[in-house]
Amino acid sequence: MAQTVTNVTTGKPAVGGAIYRAPLGTTLPTSASAELDEAFVSLGYISEDGLTNENSVETEEVKAWGGDTVLTSQTGKTDTFSATFIEALNVEVLKMVYGDANVSGTLAAGITVRANSVEAGGACYVVDQVMREGALKRIVIANGKLSELGEISYNDSDAVGYEVTLTALPGFSDGDTHKEYIVKSA
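Below the sequence we write its predicted C-alpha cells.
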C-alpha cells in the first residue's frame, strides 16, 4: 500500500464542544455523525494539551533455560483518558470531579461543592474531533470512571483546571472499553 500524506492528521475539538458526559445507561451513538442523546452535556473547554489516551498492555515473559524468551502472555490491559478541564465554573465539570451527589445549585444562585470520600460513579463519555480532510472522529466510552485527579492550582496567572484521568471500563455488550468511529464529512 502506498504512503498517503492526506492520511496524516491532527485531532482538533469539534466546534461547540468536544467532550460530553451522560449518566450510565444512556443510549450511545454508533457512528461519528449520529446525533447525541439529549442526556449528554458538554464539559466545555479543556487545556491546550488536549486529550491523551493510554491504551496500555501488561505482559509477562517466560524464558527458557539459557535466557531465550519463548512466550509472552498478556496479564492485563488498561484504557485511560486524561485531560485538564478548565471551565472551573461549569457545574457539569464539578459533578464529574466531585460526583453528581456532591454538587448542587447553579452559578447564578450559588454552587455548593462537597469534597468527601464518597466514590463518584461512572458515566458515559463522548469525544468529538475534526480531523484533516474534514474527517470526523468520535470516541465513545460506555463506562468511564474517575481514577485520578491532579492538584488544583489557584493563582493569578493560570486558569483553574481539573486534571482528570478516566479509566474506561468494559461497558459495551461485547466487553469493549471504548469504540472509535471515523467518517469523512459530507
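The chain has a mean pLDDT of 91.
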